Amino acid sequence: MTWWYLAIPTAAFAGYLVYLEIVNRRRAESLRADFNARDRLDPGTWFAAFAGSGLSHERLVEVLSPVARAIGCEVTQLRPTDSFDGTLRWRGIAFLGIVDDDNPWNDFLKCDLPRLCGNEERTWTVIDHLQTTPTLQRLVEAIRSLDEPGVPVGAE
User: Fold this and answer.
1) Which of 152, 153, 132, 138 is nearest to 79 (CA)?
2) DSSP string covering 103-150, please?
3) Which long-range contacts does 30-33 make (Cβ < 8 Å, 24+ apart)?
4) b or e along 64-75 (b: 16 or more beta carbons within 10 Å of the residue's beta carbon)?
């Protein structure tokens, strides 16, 4: 007779986890749809938008390709003003700190960014630079400052 005291909360908890999964998948699809609706710039125009970064076209593509892959768009759909706390922000719901498989930034932060930076210390340097202005332009400038020591972030 007392088994239902456990069954009802367990079923409610399982239902809540299913709800979270559905909500997070829809949010991921919405984020990808927003970017896929954007115009794809021709490579020259796109590179000109990031021209102040000081990176070569090849390095710029190398830095921003993981971002585009995380979002599910073309690299030429990214803009310097895209912000990690704005247009790129993941609005998923995490439960008790459990890693959300739908969060596009999990692999970027754990694999792609450290690969681009070279080591953990340099990765944290880039993350520190993004604290005040978390835009793609700032990310590119921070990577450039690692590539060219002595060039401060934001220098032209």
Assistant:
1) 138
2) -THHHIIIIIHHHHHSSHHHHHHHHHHHTT--BHHHHHHHHHHHHSTT
3) 31/71, 31/72, 31/90, 31/91, 31/104, 32/71, 32/72, 32/73
4) bebbbebbebeb
- Are the beta carbons of 146 and 125 closer than 8 angstroms? yes
Q: Are 46 and 77 in contact (CB under 8 A)?
A: no
Give the pair of three-digit tokens for residue 69: 């892959």
Query: Which pLDDT tens digits describe the chain residue by residue (156 residues)?
Result: 577 777 787 777 777 767 767 766 777 677 777 778 888 888 888 898 887 777 888 989 999 999 888 888 889 999 998 888 777 776 555 554 555 555 667 777 788 888 888 888 888 888 888 888 888 888 888 888 887 765 444 444
d(CA 102, CA 93): 10
pTM over cut 0.85: no
Q: How many residues does the chain have?
A: 156
| Residue ranges covered by each domain of the chain | 3-147
